[in-house]
Amino acid sequence: MSSQDQQIMFVFPGQGSQYVGMGSDLIRDFPVAQRLYQQANDILGYDLLKLCLEGPEDDLRLTRHTQPALLVHSLACLEIFRELTDNQVQPVLTAGHSLGEYCALVAAGTLSFETALELVRKRGEFMGTYGAGEMLAFPLHLDNIHPLAEKHYCVISARNLLDQTVVGGLTDDLDRLTTEAHAQFPRKRPTRLKTEGAFHTFHMITAALHFRPVLDAAEMSAPTVRVLSNYTGTYHDPDPAAIKTRLFFQLFHPVHWIDNLEAAFHDGITTIVEFGGGLGTGAAPEDKRPNLESMIKKALRGSDFSAHYHAAINSQTLRETAMALQS
């Protein structure tokens, strides 16, 4: 099946998929990546590339740095992929997890690279300055963890899978929730996420209020392909004013990622390509595994649908995926 016969979805990861050394292979191998990082440095007024390449990790993990770093890395991967495929492999829809939604809007032509970078710079600053709390990913269905979370003043941050629910709250409240959840579900241990606050909860309302005028002033166009909204779980309205309100609400409401995936599956997606970021303990970009792959494949296994998954997160996987989708 040629790329023209496929229904292709481009996806982009969110925070937690950053790592020191991110982008080192891209700038070594592709001039377009060098240009994009230099453009980002000029816009931001600091050396983002040096931070990505050398760290320190604690600085890269700060929300105000993580969000621009991941956006630039993801979009560098996208630009390289377009170059490798002569722009012949086109998506019918795009989606991103949390921060990744801004990359999805760039890929769909709604945001320019410059506007998206300015938006996530301010978004990261406000979330880091005005946010509070932490996040835990529980391998539990929403119906199991939701009542326990509310009992301890915690709330749902994301529905990633039917059996993976992220909860946000203050540290002491999350500790009490963890103790009670362990008593009821002893084999279901949560994973603490590497974030600076309880994103997508009421702890981000002040950040959202500061972010709103920045969103209101941003230049946006109607998307050229459909884009999935984390806030609604379904497709964005093509009206840029409506997209802005959904991005505003996304800051302090749960990410409905499983609903995004199911919407794509129901609409006949046959191929999914993930751009940017990376997970794992290996130091080199080629040692990293994709952030969203596991969730996508688990969601597919629990459904009646099938789709081919491809990573495009470093030089090696970019070349492999470009070749596979052009063959």
Account of the 3D structure:
With 327 residues, the protein is of the alpha/beta class. The chain folds into 2 domains: 3-130 and 201-326, Malonyl-Coenzyme A Acyl Carrier Protein, domain 2; 134-192, Alpha-Beta Plaits. 48% of the residues lie in helices and 13% in strands. It contains 14 helices and 9 strands. The chain has helices spanning 24-29, 31-44, 48-54, 57-60, 63-84, 100-107, 113-130, 142-151, 171-184, 205-217, 240-250, 257-266, 293-301, 315-326; strands at residues 8-12, 93-96, 134-138, 155-161, 164-169, 191-192, 226-227, 271-275, 308-312. Strands 7-2-1-8-9 form a 5-stranded parallel beta sheet, sandwiched between helices. It is globular. Pfam families: Acyl_transf_1. It comes from Candidatus Competibacter phosphatis. Belongs to the fabD family.
Summarize the structure.
This protein is α/β, with parallel strands linked by helices and 327 residues long.
How much helix is in the residues?
40-55%
- The global form is globular
Q: Strand order within the widest sheet?
A: 7-2-1-8-9
Terminal Cα separation, in Å?
9 Å
Major sheet description:
5 strands, parallel
Low-confidence stretches: none
Whole-number mean pLDDT? 96
Stated plainly, the CATH topology of the largest domain is called Malonyl-Coenzyme A Acyl Carrier Protein, domain 2
Total strands: the figure is 9
What is the name of the CATH superfamily of the largest domain? Malonyl-Coenzyme A Acyl Carrier Protein, domain 2
Order of helices and strands: EHHHHHEHHEHEEHEHEHHEHEH
Cα-based radius of gyration, to the nearest Å: 19 Å
